[in-house]
From TrEMBL:
It comes from Pyrinomonas methylaliphatogenes. Its EC number is 1.5.1.5, 3.5.4.9. Residues 146-311 form the Tetrahydrofolate dehydrogenase/cyclohydrolase NAD(P)-binding domain. This is Bifunctional protein FolD. It catalyses: (6R)-5,10-methenyltetrahydrofolate + H2O = (6R)-10-formyltetrahydrofolate + H(+); (6R)-5,10-methylene-5,6,7,8-tetrahydrofolate + NADP(+) = (6R)-5,10-methenyltetrahydrofolate + NADPH. Homodimer. HAMAP family: THF_DHG_CYH. Residues 12-127 form the Tetrahydrofolate dehydrogenase/cyclohydrolase catalytic domain.
Amino acid sequence: MAERRQERATLLDGARVAEEIKAEVREEVARLEREHGIIPCLVTVLVGDDPASAVYVRNKVNTSIALGLRSEHHALPHETSTEQLLALIAQLNARADVDGILVQLPLPKGVDAMRILEAIDPAKDVDGFHPVNVGRMMLGQTALPPCTPAGIIELLDRYGIAIGGAHACVVGRSNIVGRPVAQLLLQRDATVTICHSRTRDLAALTRQADILIVATGRVALIRGEHIKPGAVVIDVGTNRVTDEETIRALFGERAEERVNALRRRGYTLVGDVHPAEAEKVAGYLTPVPGGVGPLTVAMLMRNTVMAARQRRLRSN
Ligand SMILES: Nc1nc(=O)c2c([nH]1)NC[C@@H]1CN(c3ccc(C(=O)N[C@@H](CCC(=O)O)C(=O)O)cc3)C=[N+]21
């Protein structure tokens, strides 16, 4: 008898794995205080009033507090200058009680984001965005890895998905996800293809991937035809969709719940992967929300504790 493929992809429960990681971090925080009197402190900086950024930062603050970390938040007006931000960073760099500095992106157009990121002390760069940390990661000396890429690797590991020897295809080449996740996968001995907006035959490449990672910010860029049957699909997209028609097209028979969310909140979150089509082809799939997003926050907490240990105890 012919082997029957499973009807639907297994969902990779990022939210659950994030809870596991956070529980580990909480224990580590308690131990640091008990044994060394150290309470790691994360400082968040938000410039302007983008509503999505405000949600993300609040989530980071609340999670820090829930895990026993200290949290300090700076909300600055949209008009803040590069010089004013640099002055704040210099103060935070100099403070012995500050372990992690997170400047929420995107910054307003008037601010030179690269100058800001380069000004953060690499030892306090819990986002892993400073060129020194990016360079160290390239060399395999992963001091503070970027949170979303590190979270994706953690998710694959905790589900027992083999990376070594697999063909991993990354769609997207951003500094915060595409490039670094490709690098981490390479370090774990995957064969890595990086695709982007100028790639000629996207489907021909993505269809060869055992592990497909999509981080483009384009709703439903990846359809059923882009996916190798049984592949692991990691959807990093977090797009706010506000029209009911798109939601119905994306979720098929399961649209009702999403349409309700839209009516309640004014939007619903969707990824870069067409969920109804992907479920029929992929072997494993991360949902949006509840997939990669929560892992990003969990890894930020872990990085903050790691930064505290490395800087204050000179060990890890
Ligand atoms: N300096 C900096 N560091 C970042 O790590 C950073 C950033 N800037 N700018 C924006 C992106 C985006 N990002 C997310 C974090 C958590 C969720 C998350 O928890 N999402 C939930 C849903 C949240 C919701 O309902 O809106 C989920 O997917 O289940 C999503 C996206 C971090 N980023």
